[in-house]
Amino acid sequence: MQGAAQLNPLSPWHLARRFLSVAFAADLRADEQMWVAHHLGPGSLRLFWLQPVPDRRHSHDVARWVADRLPERTDLIVAALLHDVGKRHSALGAIGRTWATLLRWVRLPESARFSRYTRHGPIGAEELAAMGHSGIVVAFAAHHHETRPDGVDPADWMVLAEADHRR
Ligand SMILES: [Fe+2]
Ligand SMILES: [Fe+2]
């Protein structure tokens, strides 16, 4: 498994790959939609579908990567499916997302939309907690662009972080 130090979200390769995946994302096929619906309750499923196409494609693919390795861990699959729900509030496309990431990295002032994008983790986590989610689902949403918080199993965190980075 890839080490945490190698998961660099600011590497040019990662940024270029993420840009292309947002710009050319394909929506979920019928069988993929059924797979998502199998894992989420009605409220969570509605939230999943409020995401723009690139985010539901990414979240689905992250969750499938986890499910291929740990199919019995439905908590990790749900965490993967819902970890980026806060992104939709920024309504940024591929170029805006790349700028937001770079501006945050060089610590330049951000616009309100960029700030909502860079804070999508905690914003989504608040929504998920208000819906009754807890544990790894809320923790991964809140901190998936940071280091593992106390109280979260390192192996669980590593599989989710690697899936998020690869997909
Ligand atoms: Fe994210
Ligand atoms: Fe993500």
Summarize the structure.
This protein has 167 residues and is mostly helical. It has helices spanning 12-23, 30-39, 42-50, 53-69, 74-82, 94-106, 112-118, 120-130, 135-143, 154-166. It has one domain.
Structural write-up:
This protein has 167 residues and is mainly alpha-helical. The chain has one domain (7-166). The protein is built from ten helices and no strands. It has helices at residues 12-23, 30-39, 42-50, 53-69, 74-82, 94-106, 112-118, 120-130, 135-143, 154-166. It is globular, with a radius of gyration of 15 Å. It starts with 11 loop residues before the first helix and ends with a helix.
The largest sheet, given as strand count, sense and whether it forms a barrel, is:
none
What integer value in Å does the Rg equal? 15 Å
Secondary-structure class? mainly alpha
Order of helices and strands: HHHHHHHHHH
What ions, cofactors and ligands are bound? fe (ii) ion
What percent of residues are in strands? under 5%
Total count of helical runs of at least 4 residues = 10
The whole-number mean of residue pLDDT values reads: 90
Q: First CA to last CA: what distance?
A: 15 Å
**Could you list the spans in which at least 5 consecutive residues all have pLDDT below 50?**
1-5
Percent helix: 55-70%
Number of strands: 0
Q: What's the number of domains?
A: 1
Report the principal-axis shape.
globular
